[in-house]
Amino acid sequence: MTLSSTGSRWTSRTVVHVLLVLAALYAVLPLVWLVTSATKSVGDFSTTGAFELGQWNLGTNLGALFTQENGVFLAWIRNSLLYAGLGAVLGSLICAGCGYAIAKLDFPGRRVLFAVTLAGVLVPTTALALPLYLLASRLHVVGTFWAVFVPLLTNPFGVYLARVYAEAAVPGEVLEAARTDGAGELRTFFTIALPMMRPGLVTIFLFQFVGIWNNFFLPLVMLTDPQLFPMSLGLYQWSTRVTQFPQYNPLVVTGSLLAVLPLVVAFVLLHRQWRSGLAAGSVQ
């Protein structure tokens, strides 16, 4: 090995390490700012630095957060958990079923359906907001829980990922053996295919959960009643009042910190299966 090749290797490794450190700081520093800012009072926001701790005011901020406007933040937490939790569970099952059917069942139009699914991955969700609103208006569900919940149950990327994972993880011989033993398609899917697809299902669940939890534009279009807002929309409404009412500043920051915690917990608890599921899909 020549000296120049050794030097270039160390140079490239140093560059990679520097880029990784910068990416980690870019991801972590906003969370650090949330933690430090959530402990500040209204006056500390103008007298302390961004990452500087003021007087410990976290308990007071939490108390004010849960009592503001008759405790509407508790309703936002409940709504977010319903939208994201129930929506991610049902959406993951729907995506898994669709992906399994495209991968393992032979029916007319299967390739066309998969091509349409891939095309759906390219469509931004904001472009669908107006058509969804018009459809919800025809069904007279605008301003209700269902106007936000039902559209979130479908995810073309989740269907694509489920199809890729079912193709790799579910042997066709096992399915043929189950059918030979007299099992129907639903029983074969739920008792044989779905357990084999579990790592991929966890990955789809996390994508669904994060996407629904952070969803903002669809609730903004569909909802007018603050009691139905998710946390993302409710905190945005409060943030628009900060310039006129500075007391909303610590409420928005503290609420944003609480809104991040479920995402952190979900990734920490499911990160092993999520990584294995994503890696399995990446080799296809």
Strand portion, in percent? Answer: under 5%
SSE arrangement, N to C: HHHHHHHHHHHHHH
Tell me the CATH superfamily.
MetI-like
Indicate the low-confidence ranges by residue numbers. none
Mean pLDDT comes to 85
Give the overall shape: globular
CATH architecture: Orthogonal Bundle
Helix content: over 70%
- CATH hierarchy, class: Mainly Alpha
Keywords: Cell membrane, Membrane, Transmembrane, Transmembrane helix, Transport
InterPro entries: MetI-like, MetI-like_sf
Family: Belongs to the binding-protein-dependent transport system permease family.
Subcellular location: Cell membrane
Structure description:
The chain is mostly helical and 284 residues long. It has a single domain, classed as Orthogonal Bundle (MetI-like fold). Helices cover 74% and strands 0% of the residues. The chain is globular, with a radius of gyration of 24 Å. The two termini are 35 Å apart. One of its GO terms (biological process) is transmembrane transport. It is found in: Cell membrane.
Secondary-structure blueprint:
Layout: H1 3-37, H2 44-47, H3 58-67, H4 72-104, H5 110-121, H6 129-138, H7 145-149, H8 156-169, H9 172-180, H10 185-196, H11 198-213, H12 217-222, H13 231-239, H14 248-282
